[in-house]
Request: fold
Amino acid sequence: MPPTPGDKFGSAALGLSLLVFGVFFANVVIGGPLRMKPWLSDVGEMLTLFAAVVLFVAGTLAREAAVRRRDAGSGTPDP
Reply:
């Protein structure tokens, strides 16, 4: 079955969430064990983590909605 727009948006949002969280994680590692000056301030870290969470939730909801639409079209009962 070809991917739906919800699948594409969900996958993109989840990928971006992973990328943004990677930036946050790298900043924490640089400031913690490596003892270097992190490039994000406390507020910057908070906003980066917030963006990662929002993208993760949006991606998860979009993928779930796409699966529900696909299941509704195939006649599969919803558990």
